[in-house]
Design a protein that fits this description.
The complex is a heterodimer of chains A (about 100) and B (about 475). Chain A has three helices and no strands. Chain A has about 100 residues and is mostly helical. Chain B is mainly α. A two-stranded antiparallel sheet of chain B has the order 1-2. In chain B, helix 3 runs antiparallel to helix 10 and helix 9 packs across helix 13. Chain B starts with 6 loop residues before the first helix and ends with a helix. The interface between A and B is large, with 39 and 43 residues.
Amino acid sequence: MNVGLEQFLTVSFLLFALGLLGVIMRRNLLVIYMSLELMLNAANLALVSFSRFNNKLDGQVVVFFIITVAAAEVAVGLALIVALFRKRPTAHVEDLATLKL
Amino acid sequence: MNSSSITLEICVIALGMVLMLADFFVAPDRKRYLAYAGIVALAGLLLVSFSGDGVCSIFGASFSGSFVEDPMALFFKRLFIGSAILVLFLAAEFSDRFASGLNEYYSLVVFALAGMLFAASANDFVMLFVSIELITITFYVLTSFQKNRLASLEAAVKYLILGALASAFMVFGIALIWGTSGELNFNGLAQVSGQFVNNKLFLAGCLFVLVGLGFKIAAFPFQVWAPDVYQGAPTPTTAFLAIGSKAAGFVLLLRVLFVAIPAVTHHWVHLLMALSAITILYGNLCAMPQRNLKRMLGYSSIAHAGYLLLGVAALNSSGQAAVMYYLAGYLFTVTAAFFVIALVLRHVPDENVSGLAGLNHRSPLLATTMTISMVSLAGIPPLAGFFGKFLLLKAIIEQGPAHHGYYLLAFIALVGVIISISYYFNVIRAIYWTRDPADLSPITVSGPARFSIAICVAGIFWLGLFPESVLNFAMSAASAIK
């Protein structure tokens, strides 16, 4: 079987949908955060495969920017989750209910 | 002219680093004065941006078209620097409520400002993504800055999850747009976007990018974070979110919709109109029952995003100019309100509207400021908020003959304004007509706070009574993106 752009894009869409599903369904903050990273990497896969099949390098350069920014986001995000965990030892989203009407 | 075109941004980043390093040289009890050093430096940059032969007056594109300097970029850069100056004043007043890391707070505000300046000039999708992430990631930290307050941390985690979700959508959208059209640059995309109005992948990409930008401006249905984050964040952060972050979202939205993909924008006019109408009604209806003042302003900021979207949905340059004018008025109005909140609700844990009771006896200056601010937010003449709303509605009605849906949209906006009067006047009633207020101790307002409140009130009256100069500038800025 010849693997073309469509197959790569299908995998990328599936990864994105799985990540979105994880964000919506899972109740643990760390797992939600992992699912978000999955979504970002789905986008990276799409960029790289477009780059490969359209013979343009821009997409691969953009991926470097995205990986760098995502690393910064993870550093801040994990620090925040740890700070919250110290204040209240639970990682479940149902317990985030201080702020309400 | 490559590196000279980003002189302003380089200066701002250098200022942020100096503020951070000053930690080693400044005694702990003097750290709040660092804010005044930052204010002086930023005021200097603002003056430079007004000088005729300054760094900002050379218009054109640089860095192979990814960075553009035009009147619209200049308008927003001045707006951002002005808002950062007022936020630093507010942070200096608020400084006793941070447990540690005060100078980091100031430098993070300045770094967020650098992100906003880059956003004002972004002309391709890489620049858009990096500048928006610089703003958002900085705001995660700014929101969580009261580390010993659970609400602050909880707000930051909620902002983090939803913000990361929005940026994942935006990255995927950028991937789809680039994959189908082969262009990342807005001007390059403008030339080819007409061919792709029927390409499903391209349209999905545009929609995903709009999701990311809709999150920044807190438009329906991406508004869920706004009330919680506004309530939980430290007050200076909330003020910066309300004006800086929202304005950054709008400058990028204007550039993407009207420079990069004008063909798709005209295709989607109904979508924009519906988003605007629902955002106005949602924000105003949800703000009515709120008791927490900052949460109420969070919902009101959703409603204001809806009013601003009216100018985007109008698809003409008077609408775009009205958006910029409205943001300038909103800057002064909302910062004045947050100043009063930071000063009055200092010792009250829950920041409710009832905490303002008897304010006219405790501090007539703050009571008057809050009244002016609420009246301006409600859009009553002769203040800035009224003239901004007038311009937005005028832009919408101008388009009425072409499409009758615009008349309905104008009607919905008016209904929203009438609803909003009820909850804004609730605040004024709490100030003047509460029986037996619990606390009648006078509030002392420091000199710098007096000065910045005077700037805000003067700005509200100036934009309401003498709109010509700012309006002309906004008009020329809007004509730059045609």
